[in-house]
Each structure stands twice: as structure tokens, then as C-alpha cells.
Specification:
InterPro entries: GDSL, GDSL_lipolytic_enzyme, SGNH_hydro_sf, SGNH_plant_lipase-like. Helix 4 links the parallel strand 2 and strand 3. Helix 6 packs across helix 7. By secondary structure, the protein is α/β, with parallel strands linked by helices. The protein has 14 helices and 8 strands. About 50% of the residues lie in helices and about 10% in strands. Strands 2-3-1-4-5-6 form a 6-stranded parallel beta sheet, sandwiched between helices.
Length: about 350
């Protein structure tokens, strides 16, 4: 067996072991969260964690129409770019806060929502503010600005001291990066003319670092950063490149970026005096795509919406879907299904228990 094959085999068995592990004891998790005074989940990112903030924006980057939300509450499109819940919804539910996390711009956001977690995420965003500007969505720096507005609301609800405590005991989740590469660096010309791919990775990692430092100044003490998936395996990428196998060059870039993010987060943990956790979705999703049947899936190369080869966002509007969504890794040609998000959430919950609550 070649060295590369041996490495992939080891990765496969490692991830398979985690998936086969005993189910998370939700009751014990909630007791631990209460003991450690966990208050809420605050989310920053792109379409992987946007529950519908883009519904309120003048952008075409939306998912608030069928068939999105087909398996969400009462089959209602919420703006989530999937058929049901996002990983952050599952995380909040497991911790005992809310069944779902609402967007900060959601007009139905109420006091209870505010106290137990909100998402500032915006589909189409990235670590590079230019990425968000291209799609007229909420940049990371603007999301952090919204966090400061959120803290003002908390002060009005709880008073200054309680608001500080609320932020200090929250779990901050950051999930983005794919758009920076696929929609910005490789489609537009500005960044690719300014930076080599490696230099752009460093630029994005620096932007992540700046954002975490800003969050720390607002009060963050527990931070989860999510890596990027193997985006060379996305159905849309396979279609555009007329390939049946994952684009190894893009996946190599995604893995390199994942490694740099993780290293920087470790540095920030020490320099800022915060608790951190890194969710390596590159390895998890890559292993599932290579061995879908081992995880209950039968289709990992195309999405459930339409032909599954190119439709996402507006091109998915009103399209027919596959008969069994639970068997698909991808919901559309870019985004994942609720079942895949549940797997990611379970792993995130394990990491939160060990890294942030120990």
C-alpha cells in the first residue's frame, strides 16, 4: 500500500471510530454546561451557519424559498441553505438552550432567543471582507460590529454586569472560508493578482485572528473555529471542471488552510487567555465522501436538489428533489444536508465538552 493510501486508511479508521463511539449523553452534557455557566451560542460565518439573516438584505444570495427548508419546522423555508437544521441548531438544542438559533436580523427574534444564542452569519461571507462585499452580504467585520450591538441589547435586558457575564460564558462559533477561495480568489481577479494562494491563506488567517481578538475585547472566552470542507469534492466544482473525482489541487489548498487556521487558533489560545476548539470538518467530510455507505449515505457526488450537479441558491428555486434526503451528503451542489450537519454537530459537541467545559 502506498504511503498516501496508508495515511487515508488511518484517517478513515480514526473517523470511523469516532462515529461508532457511544452516543452523546445529552443529560450529562446539559448538566456540565449548567455547571460551567454556559449561557448561549453566538455564531459568525457564511451559509454553513446562516439561519436567514440574508432574508433581510438586498442580495440574491438567499435560500428562503422551496425546496430549501423541506424538512425544517413545518416544511418552512427559513433562509437556511439546507433541507432542515444547521449544525449550530443541533448544538444549541443539545446544550438545552433552544431548538434552533435565530438570525440577529430576524424580525421574530425575542428576549429568550437573545439570551440563549443568535447567529450573525451571512451566506456568501468570508474572512476577507471583500468576499462579502462582492455578494452584498454581511462581512465578518460587520458581524463583529453586530455583536457589539447585541451586547448593548443585553445590557438593556440584564444590566451591565449580567450582560458581561452572559457574553463571557457564551460559546462563540466561527464557520467560513470556502467563499473566500471559490467565489473570490478563483472567480474575481483582485486577490489572485495581489496574492499567491499561500499568501491569501495567510491573509485570511490574519483576518480570523483579528476577528477573534475583537471578540475577546467584547468579552469572548470560549471560541470554536470550524475549518473548511474538501471543497474540491463539491458537486458544483466537479461539474465546472467536468470531473468525476475530487479536485486534488483544491483539496490540497483546503487542507493547507485548515492546518494554518488550527495553528493560529492554538497561538491565540495562549496569547489571549481563552479556551478554544477547532473542528476539522475537512477530515470528517472527506472520509464520509470517500466511504458514504459507512455513514448511512448512498450519494456523495451530487446534491438532492434538481440534477444535483450545478443547482444552488436561486437556481435551486422550485426544483424537484431526491426521494430520500437522508441518503445524500449534499443538499444542493454546494451545501450539505441536515443529516451531514447532524454528524458535524455531534463532533462539535464532543469537542466543546472536552476543550471548553473541562
Amino acid at each position: 500500500m502506498a504511503a498516501g493510501e496508508t495515511k487515508m486508511a488511518l484517517i478513515f479508521f480514526a473517523v470511523a471510530a469516532f462515529c461508532a463511539a457511544q452516543a452523546i449523553d445529552i443529560a450529562q452534557l446539559r448538566l456540565l454546561a449548567a455547571k460551567k455557566n454556559l449561557t448561549s451560542v453566538l455564531v459568525f460565518g457564511d451559509s454553513s451557519v446562516d439561519p436567514g439573516n440574508n432574508n433581510r438584505l438586498d442580495t440574491t444570495n438567499k435560500g428562503n424559498f422551496p425546496p430549501y427548508g423541506k424538512d425544517f419546522l413545518n416544511g418552512r423555508p427559513s433562509g437556511r441553505f439546507t433541507n432542515g437544521k444547521l449544525a449550530t441548531d443541533f448544538i444549541a438544542d443539545a446544550l438545552g438552550y433552544k431548538k434552533i438559533i435565530r438570525g440577529f436580523l430576524d424580525p421574530h427574534l425575542n428576549k429568550l432567543d437573545m439570551l440563549h444564542g443568535v447567529s450573525f452569519a451571512s451566506a456568501g461571507s468570508g474572512y476577507d471582507d471583500l468576499t462579502a462585499n462582492l455578494s452584498r452580504v454581511i462581512s465578518l467585520s460587520k458581524q463583529v460590529e453586530y455583536l457589539k450591538h447585541y451586547k448593548i441589547h443585553l445590557r438593556q435586558l440584564l444590566g451591565v454586569n449580567k450582560a458581561e457575564e452572559q457574553i463571557r460564558n457564551a460559546v462563540f462559533v466561527i464557520s467560513m472560508g470556502t467563499n473566500d477561495f471559490l467565489l473570490n480568489y478563483y472567480v474575481e481577479s483582485n486577490r489572485s493578482q495581489q496574492f499567491s494562494a499561500a499568501q491569501y491563506e495567510d491573509y485570511l488567517v490574519s483576518s480570523m485572528s483579528t476577528a477573534v481578538k475583537e471578540m475577546r475585547s467584547v468579552g469572548a472566552r470560549r471560541v470554536v473555529v470550524v475549518g473548511v470542507p474538501p471543497f474540491g469534492c463539491m458537486p458544483l466544482v466537479l461539474t465546472l471542471r467536468d470531473e468525476t473525482k475530487c479536485d486534488e489541487a483544491l483539496n490540497k489548498l483546503a487542507l493547507s488552510f485548515t492546518t494554518k487556521l488550527k495553528q493560529k487558533l492554538t497561538t491565540l489560545k495562549g496569547s489571549l487567555g481563552i479556551k478554544t476548539s477547532f473542528l476539522d470538518i475537512y477530515t470528517i467530510i472527506g472520509t464520509i465522501i470517500q466511504n458514504p455507505k459507512s455513514y448511512g449515505f448512498t450519494e456523495a457526488s451530487k446534491g438532492c436538489c434538481g440534477t444535483g450537479t450545478y443547482e444552488f441558491g436561486t437556481t435551486c428555486r422550485g426544483m424537484a428533489t431526491c426521494s430520500d434526503r437522508t441518503k445524500y451528503v449534499f443538499w444542493d451542489a454546494v451545501h450539505f444536508t441536515e443529516n451531514l450537519y447532524k454528524i458535524l454537530a455531534d463532533e462539535a459537541i464532543k469537542l466543546i465538552s472536552v476543550d471548553l467545559l473541562s
